[in-house]
């Protein structure tokens, strides 16, 4: 197995476990982390040489960045909002923002949109963590912001490549944030 596959495995596990665990209480969070998990799972297939998974992986990765990350951020910052607490509202958000993202990125070639939405979401998650004043939430959010900062600056921590670094840091960040969610059943 390649390093890319190994880096996708923990992200897939962490994101899908959170999605399954949170679907009833926090459907916005579940849908957001579920998109990240499915993108990562498709990445495992893609990096394993299954060519049919490449297109779906790219598409779901776009949705994870443009829709999954904002859903996660909204669910953490505005934890009582309808998008955070009602599956129907989270699905409507998913459909509308997915359509906008598909128009902007593949159709209008505004690829920067996915980076902007993911980075802005990471900053909102950081703000939610600071507001919570919980060290584990702050640590998870700092790692998430660092993850996107490193990617934006094209900085890579050896021995990882850029994709592996993104996957590993996101998995660590989500795991730290999930520890907080699990400990008191209260989002950041």
Secondary structure elements and pairings:
Elements: H1 3-22, H2 27-47, H3 54-77, H4 82-85, H5 87-107, H6 112-132, H7 135-152, H8 162-184
Helix pairs in contact: 1-2, 1-8, 2-3, 3-5, 3-6, 6-7, 7-8
Descriptive key words:
mainly alpha, 188 residues, disordered C terminus
Tally of separate helices: 8
The geometry reads as: globular
Overall number of strands: 0
Radius of gyration: 15 Å
Summed up, the domain count is 1
Poorly predicted regions are: 183-188
Major β-sheet, in short? Answer: none
Average pLDDT: 93
Secondary structure: helix percent: over 70%
What pattern of helices and strands is seen along the backbone? HHHHHHHH
How would you describe this structure to a colleague?
With 188 residues, the chain is mainly α. The chain has one domain (3-184). It is 81% helix and 0% strand. It contains 8 helices and no strands. It has helices at residues 3-22, 27-47, 54-77, 82-85, 87-107, 112-132, 135-152, 162-184. Helix 6 packs antiparallel against helix 7 (135-152). The longest helix is centred in the middle third of the chain and has 24 residues, at 54-77. It is globular. 47% of the residues are buried. Mean pLDDT is 93; it is low at 183-188.
Short description:
This protein is an all-alpha fold and 188 residues long. It has eight helices and no strands. The protein is globular, with a radius of gyration of 15 Å.
């Amino acid at each position: 197995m390649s390093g890319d596959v190994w880096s996708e495995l923990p992200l897939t596990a962490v994101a899908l476990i959170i999605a399954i665990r949170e679907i009833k209480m926090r459907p916005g969070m579940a849908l957001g982390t579920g998109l990240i998990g499915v993108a990562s799972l498709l990445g495992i297939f893609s990096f394993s040489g299954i060519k049919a998974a490449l297109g779906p992986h790219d598409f779901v990765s776009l949705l994870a960045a443009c829709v999954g990350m904002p859903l996660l951020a909204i669910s953490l910052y505005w934890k009582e909002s309808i998008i955070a607490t009602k599956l129907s509202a989270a699905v409507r958000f998913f459909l509308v923002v997915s359509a906008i993202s598909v128009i902007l990125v593949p159709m209008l070639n505004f690829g920067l949109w996915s980076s902007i939405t993911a980075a802005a979401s990471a900053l909102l998650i950081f703000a939610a963590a600071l507001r919570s004043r919980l060290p584990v939430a702050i640590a998870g959010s700092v790692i998430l912001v660092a993850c996107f900062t490193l990617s934006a600056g094209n900085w890579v921590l050896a021995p990882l490549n850029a994709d592996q670094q993104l996957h590993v840091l996101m998995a660590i960040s989500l795991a730290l944030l999930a520890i907080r969610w699990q400990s008191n059943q209260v989002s950041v």
